[in-house]
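User: Working on a comparison across species. This one is Sodium:proton antiporter from Acetobacter lambici. Can you predict its structure so I can line it up against the others?
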Amino acid sequence: MTDSVIIFVFFVLGGSMLAQWTAWRFRLPAIVLLFSLGLLYGPVLQVMHPSEMIGSAFHPLVSLAVALIVFEGGLALDFRQLKEAGEGVLRLTLVALPINFLLGSLAAHYIGGMGWGPAFLFGSIVVVTGPTVVLPLLRHAKLKPRIAAFLRWEAILNDPVGAILATLVLEVLLMHPDEGSGTVFAAIVPHMLASAALMMGLGVGTAWCVRWLCVRDLLPDIMKMPLFITLALMLYVVGTLSMDGAGLIASTVFGMGLANLRIPGMGELQRMKEALVVLIVSVLFVLLAADLQRNELASISWSIGGLTLAVLFLVRPLGIWLATMGSSLSWRERFFVGWIAPRGIVAAAVAGIAGVRLQDAGYPGAGLVMPAVFAVIASTMILHGFSLIPLGRKLHLTLSNQPALAIVGASEWSTQLAQAVHNVGTPVLLVDSSARDLAPAQKAGVPVLCTEVLSEEGAESLEERPADYLITATPDAIYNGLVCAHLAPHFGHQRVYQVSPGVARLDQYRGLSREARGKVLGQPGWNFTLLETLVKQGWRFVAKDITEDNKERLLMENSDFLIFLMIQKGAAITVVSLEDDASPPFWAGLVAIGLMPPPK
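Assistant: Here's the predicted structure for Sodium:proton antiporter from Acetobacter lambici:
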């Protein structure tokens, strides 16, 4: 085994996964940790230099990985999201982009000290907001659906458009002097428009062919994901052969086609590709940051620092403000989108290739393009990565940041449980397909959602509510398990619970499979019939503050207090289950919610 393979496995794969876990555990932006790790490996310690280790295949491999990322992003673009966010998305992708291009070019010339040619190239590169950065941030931000849709659509759609714009600028700058402006309008622009239209048609057509195979059961499930990935890469290669940047359009449109043509079985496949993209993004950021040279970092001057500040605090905010004038966006949304614009891998890849070509052509100041773009990338990742959640909360653009509970199934006892949780100030949502069954909870002030959670509409509605834990509490044990299995990828398998199906059905070998149900709520003997019977006999759900005086008594085996939840107000929820490896916390200051018998 060669040294380069060992370095890649331990330093890149191992380090990137450790960074991802650390970011998840301590609620940090993973992108910032990955970028810092790459800088540590490359310019600081000089342990690795990927382009030298991998050779000429490095940049093509990076491009193929980016194609998979934009394909995955396309799968997240559902046209139904445009009902509310459509106007804002169009303004961000069609109006803001040329404004940002012009303002960025002017800033690069007058503040960054670049010649007009490199300045226009810089302006075309920094108009994109990378999905490699934006999408991971959105997964943890809990933004409201409308503002999240703005950032998601802009990042994914502007990526290929920005790459094509940079290609157009580069081709114009590299034209021979005797070719004149007629070449631009007679050859270059028509070729680009034709290539873009062809790739869009090819992406949609390929998605239709895939749907035709799937609905006729001509494609086994085990082949779907490998085929989708292969087709996305093939479309990228075909598009790139036609024109630089067109491949990204083809891959993105293919993903959008699959997402909106309602192909059977896409839900499980989307979760698989999300896991794959997390690995790809992690590796790419480490490798690209590690590939930076010390002399490139040393060339960052005061002028580049001023240019970076101008892009952050002037170009982007002013461009968004001008583009959204007279729109339905609130001032909070305009301010937030004007600030949050982290750049990612596509900007880095385009700068690395286009900047060198322009420098070889002898343009003065072309050597500043690469360090200037990376200064913007690093600054936006750090500042926007750490400020996205706090700023969203300050502007009231996030869902609740407190841990929240969703309960599926409205009965007398589950309504009481939801009301007890609501009364202690913890967010809770009671879900049922029957408005009549939800009426008592709604009358008591408990938030409710009338929907079928197994439907697409129900799943989307649930994602828009701030829920971190799930309890299924219907009389049907099979339905409870089905809901838990269906929603476990969204909540996490350790955070989905169901009322016990009965002791006899919990056998790990002969009973309900653990993969087909949630963890048992409370004790195995606390099935729906028992809880319903206890409530009819006068038992009630109550909340008790845990103190040093009463905690020993409440924990006694013969205690008449049946504990279901332990809540640390504003910080944590623990659903009590005998199937959890660790014992639930039980210390002074917590609130225990459980069933109490009627007073004697």
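For your comparison, note: The CA atoms of residues 198 and 250 lie 9 Å apart.

User: Helpful, thanks.
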